Amino acid sequence: MPARHFFVILDEMAKREYLGEFELTVLLALLRLGEDAYGVPIAREIEASSGREVGIASVYAALDRLERKGFVNSRRGEPTPERGGRAKRFFRVTALGLRQVRKTQKTLVALWRGLPQLDGGEA
Amino acid sequence: MKVTPPTMATWVLEHLVLGDRNEALEGDLLEEFQRRRSATWYWRQVLGAVLNFSNVLRAGWVTVCAVVFAAVWVCGLCVIVRCFIGHLPLQTATDNWIPYGHPIAIPEGIVFYLAAPLSVYLALSRNLCLRAFTIGLGAGVLAIATLPSLQSLLATPLSNFLGYLRANHWNVMLWLRCFDLLQGSLPLLVAIWAAALSKIKMGTLDP
Asked: Is A92 contained in some domain?
């Protein structure tokens, strides 16, 4: 298979609407943080709720995918000296992103409901 | 006191992450590092960024081809260097676009020999135009492919010249190896030239 076709397939895969687990986590963290969320607070928010270390590069990779799908948008901040003159990139969830989170929530809740294996005990 | 992250890791982050430079990520890592994170954490994050498959997707197939192309070429150079150091006879190919026998068959040292010239190139071009690198590399390989016909044209004068060198007790084999080494470096030289040229055109190369 030519390399070009391989990347076209992968590109098409990335355009699909469904949310992966990590993408959903990043979107939820973004919603919790509200305005002016960028890489560091998003990673911290996920670390605080999941209790495991998160790669900031992975967060950016997920955010890039979400931006391509139209679920988030970003804007560039001003460069600051404490960041070595590098600008922050602020993200916010779009209306489409919010709709997709609601849809995913609905699906997951419907699937969770009435599962005897999950009743009562701790995960 | 302002703490600086490991210099080598920062260099890797700025130059070896495929695709466009992610300024926001670089700033975030610096900010987080200065907030009591360790050098190990920083290195882990940098390696995570370098090895992130999403970067490969973002960079696209041209970049991947450039890297593979450079790897094949570097393996070829590896053969030359080994022969040069070990005083072994060179096995040169005549009908192959890869100019040095069977470079793929050399598994060892790939990382080192891949990292060195790519680093030189990336240092010069600042993560830039891997597309230009591919074009340059292609031009270099084309030059090497046409070199045998040029050599056959020069065969008689060359053998006369070698006879003269032998008569004057010159180490002919050493000179031949130098010539092969130079020939092997041609793709990289052309690639660097192409990358620099493209940067000058874009007005981003420092004088």
From this structure: yes
Q: Which of B31, B34, B52 sits opposite A58 (nearest CB)?
A: B52
The H or E element spanning position A86 is strand A86-93
Confirm whether A121 is domain-assigned.
no
Q: Return the residue of A nearest to B23 by Cα.
A: A86
Per the structure, the count of domains in chain A is 1
CB contact under 8 A, A88 and B28: yes
In a domain? residue A10: yes
Residue of B nearest to A76 (CA): B24
Assess A78–B contact: CB distance below 8 Å, yes or no. no
Are the C-beta atoms of B68 and B34 separated by less than 8 Å? no
User: Which of B23, B34, B57 is closest, CB to CB, to A86?
Assistant: B23
pTM of the model: 0.55
Examine residue A119 and state whether it is found in any structural domain, yes or no: no
Question: Are B49 and A88 in contact (CB < 8 Å)?
Answer: no
**B102: DSSP letter:** -
What is the spatial distance between Cα A74 and Cα A38, in angstroms, rounded to a whole number? 9
pLDDT digits (tens, 9 = 90+) for B108-145: 444 444 444 555 555 555 544 555 555 555 655 565 55
Report ipTM (2 d.p.): 0.78
* Cα B122 to Cα B191: distance, rounded to the nearest angstrom: 11
